[in-house]
Amino acid sequence: MTNHSGLVMTQARAPLTRLSQVMDEQGNWREQALACERPLTLYLNKREIVTLMTLGEDPEALVLGYLRNQGLVERLDDVLAVQVDWEVEAAAVVTSHTPDDIEATLAKRTVTTGCGQGTVFGNQMERLKGLQLRQWTLKQSQIYHLLDSLNQHNATYKNAGAVHGCAICSAEGEVLSFCEDIGRHNAVDTLAGRLWLEGINSDDKIFYTTGRLTSEMVMKTAQMGISALLSRSGATEMGLQIANELGILMLARAKGRHFLVFSGQTRLELDNKPAPLARSNKRRSQDE
């Protein structure tokens, strides 16, 4: 396909789940859906960059978001073509020029804690210096509305498990874009690619993930221009440190009516406090 900007791009979707025969604890055989996992080797102007292990939900957006978040492509207008071919498990991206510092950038490779061994090229923190993220206020009631809305957007996880879900959401609780993938870093790169392609203003949006908020996740979200993070999992020390440096509102362990605010507490309006639990019930709820 060709979009409005002249970018030639495939739409190479792949099956998200496959059925397999499994045996339960009673010795009975039954069908079980399994999340698909497939390699996708990314080439930039015929140069091999990385192999991503992915579900394959939206591979073109994934590779674009990856290149953007790694600083290998700065402008969407520079991209001429994105071609994904699952038969050879490859994605070829053609741009109008190759970055002058690509050798130095690719040399600085750090293996991160992301599922599937995500990688961060170069010194991303250098690119984030001086970044000014919009400091807007989020309401507690909006968080609860958003968590309710997100329950309708994890079809692959409900069917097969073994995947992470990420979403771009409005403060009003609307899920603007949702993606599931084997690794949460793949899901956030896919969303970054979609935002880029659709030209969505992200400075008043919320990023949601089912995975933990590591330094990689915080940096990638900041590069997307988003200053509010919400996770049903926890956060790492370095992730929190970077969130504090960038003025990010970070909420984690969000499930039901419970959440913890790790940073940016002044940006949250507590307008819908739930009734306090009894001490014994509260401890039991947090342990769960």
Question: What do you see in this structure?
Answer:
The protein is of the alpha/beta class. The protein folds into two domains: 8-124, Roll (Ubiquitin-like (UB roll)); 138-287, Cytidine Deaminase, domain 2. The chain contains nine helices and 17 strands. The strands form five sheets. A six-stranded mixed sheet has the order 12-11-13-14-15-16, with helices on both faces. A five-stranded mixed sheet has the order 1-6-7-4-5, with helices on one face. Helix 1 packs across helix 6 (184-198), helix 6 (184-198) packs parallel to helix 7 and helix 7 (215-223) runs parallel beside helix 8 (237-246). The longest helix is centred in the middle third of the chain and has 15 residues, at 184-198. The N and C termini lie far apart (47 Å). 37% of the residues are buried. Mean pLDDT is 84; it is low at 110-114 and 116-122.
Per-chain topology:
Elements lengths: L7 E2 L7 E7 L5 E7 L2 E7 L2 E8 L4 H11 L9 E7 L4 E6 L6 H6 L1 E3 L7 E3 L2 H5 L9 E2 H11 L4 H6 L3 E7 L4 E7 L2 H15 L6 E5 L5 H9 L4 E4 L5 H10 L2 E7 L2 E6 L4 E2 L9 H9 L1
Parallel strand pairs: 1-6, 4-7, 10-17, 13-14, 14-15
Antiparallel strand pairs: 2-3, 4-5, 6-7, 8-9, 11-12, 11-13, 15-16
Helix pairs in contact: 1-6, 6-7, 7-8
Subcellular location: Cytoplasm
GO molecular function, one term: sulfur carrier activity
Protein name: Sulfur carrier protein FdhD
